[in-house]
Amino acid sequence: MTLILTNDDGIDAPGIKALLHAVNGRELIIAAPRDHQSGCGHQVTTTGPILVEKRSDREYAIAGTPADCTRIAISHISENIKCVISGINAGGNLGVDAYISGTVAAVREAAMHGIPGIAISHYRKGKQEYNWQAAARWTASVIDDLLTRPLEPGSFWNVNLPHLLPEEGEPEVVFCQACTKPLPVNYRLEGSEFYYVGNYQQRSRTVGSDVDVCFNGNIAVTQLKV
């Protein structure tokens, strides 16, 4: 059975290359947005054409949203799909982020069609650089585990990797609930134009929730449902 890999950062993003490394050796198809689609949520294209560029026998660059990519992959590109895996997103998708995240929307779309899904994101602390090699290693271990776990129909996994320095050691995997507290929202006003300036790292968090787990340096795994 085939894995479908997608994301919302675009098919050439370093995160999806790390994801490909994490699932190395498995039968897979890459069906990812041609362009950056971060924050597009569950938007789908219904009134215009969607250009699909076949780059190789297993790689498709799709000029649409992450949800579009999942729809096209499961309806026209591949059969006998085992799981749709989305990521690794450059930035966290914790708690209520799931409602605006294209990364999460790609696997929610799969769950709507009865196909298991895993969304994987990498929280970023400040402006520090990502360690994609470590992210791929952690992701490989998490995927190996989650692919063996049964999911209720309409459910999917949301995984958030922490941002750790090399001297901080290896994170633990913690299964937890999604935080329901809102994101910090503020804007800088220039004339009549508003610029979002919410501070992600200062968001409120429920103790033991995915935000709390990830911010404390561990891998947060939540099971979400359509």
Automatic annotation (TrEMBL):
It is an enzyme of class 3 (hydrolase). It catalyses: a ribonucleoside 5'-phosphate + H2O = a ribonucleoside + phosphate. Its EC number is 3.1.3.5. Signal peptide: none annotated. Residues 4-168 form the Survival protein SurE-like phosphatase/nucleotidase domain. Pfam families: SurE. It comes from the Bacteria. GO terms for molecular function: 5'-nucleotidase activity; metal ion binding. Keywords: Hydrolase, Metal-binding. Belongs to the SurE nucleotidase family. This is 5'-nucleotidase. It comes from Cyanomargarita calcarea GSE-NOS-MK-12-04C.
